[in-house]
Specification:
The structure holds two protein chains of two kinds.
Chain A lengths: L3 E3 L3 E4 L5 E7 L5 E8 L3 E8 L6 E2 L6 E7 L2 E6 L8 E8 L1 E2 L2 E2 L3 E2 L3 E5 L1
Parallel strand pairs in A: 2-13
Antiparallel strand pairs in A: 1-3, 3-8, 4-5, 4-9, 5-6, 7-8, 9-12, 9-13, 10-11
Chain B lengths: L3 E2 L4 E5 L4 E7 L6 E7 L6 E7 L4 E4 L2 E6 L4 E6 L8 E8 L9 E2 L3 E6 L1
Classes of the chains: A mainly beta, B mainly beta.
Chain lengths: 115, 114
């Protein structure tokens, strides 16, 4: 079974703090993704990576950055947390086999509250 | 601009009956589609997929139908069970883009009544 783990289930941070969210997958997947989920807005893609040290902006990258130094680990960084970044953050990974976009496997999520 | 739409935010169904969840998309380049189920405080779980070369895919109680001309897909759950109560997301991808990313809908909350 694919396992995607996220460093924290719940996190409370103050406005202006730098926040690190860590994600690790154990299936040697090439692709990794960070989403946020908000009521009525579904899952929105923040950043994704299809290889070590590679990153691509998703639909809502503003206020975020990412790091992928190792294949199994993908970090999301909030440089200066703001209250509008209070959300559920979900990490996912998927395999690359040819050109087909295979299903993504999700971690349990991190509920971040910025006060 | 929402490229993947789930216009019903919620749906209630009696146990044992059929649940039909709908999803519409606007981008004609989308050719891969997924359905996920999500319980509160958990990550989404993959349910079933379909590619544009098919119009139906079945897996146990779950069947996904794709109508390419209408840019519409639906998930049928038969028979519905109380454990199916969750939020369901559809997602679509353009396989020719080479990015492997999916666009998700806003979700439909299904409640199966015992």
């Amino acid at each position: 079974d694919v396992k995607v783990t996220q460093s924290s289930r719940y996190l409370v941070k103050r406005t202006g703090e730098k926040v690190f969210l860590e994600c690790v997958q154990d299936m040697d997947h090439e692709n990794m993704f960070w989403y946020r989920q908000d009521p009525g807005l579904g899952l929105r893609l923040i950043y994704f990576s299809y290889d070590v040290k590679m990153k691509e902006k998703g639909d809502i990258p503003e206020g975020y950055s990412v790091s992928r130094e190792k294949k199994e680990r993908f970090s999301l960084i909030l440089e200066s947390a703001s209250t509008n970044q209070t959300s559920m953050y979900l990490c996912a990974s998927s395999v690359t086999l040819g050109w087909a976009p295979y299903e993504q496997y999700f971690g349990p999520g991190t509920r971040l509250t910025v006060t | 601009d929402q490229q993947v739409k789930q216009n019903s935010p919620s749906l209630s169904v009696q146990e044992g009956r059929i649940s039909i969840l709908n999803c519409d998309y606007t981008n004609s380049m989308f050719d891969y589609f997924l359905w996920y189920k999500k319980y509160p405080a958990e990550g989404p779980t993959f349910l079933i997929s379909i590619s544009s070369i098919k119009d139906k895919n079945e897996d146990g109680r779950f069947t996904v139908f794709l109508n390419k001309s209408a840019k519409h897909l639906s998930l049928h759950i038969v028979p519905s069970q109380p454990g199916d109560s969750a939020v369901y997301f559809c997602a679509a991808s353009d396989g020719t883009s080479g990015t492997y990313k999916y666009i998700f809908g806003t979700g439909t909350r299904l409640k199966v009544l015992a």
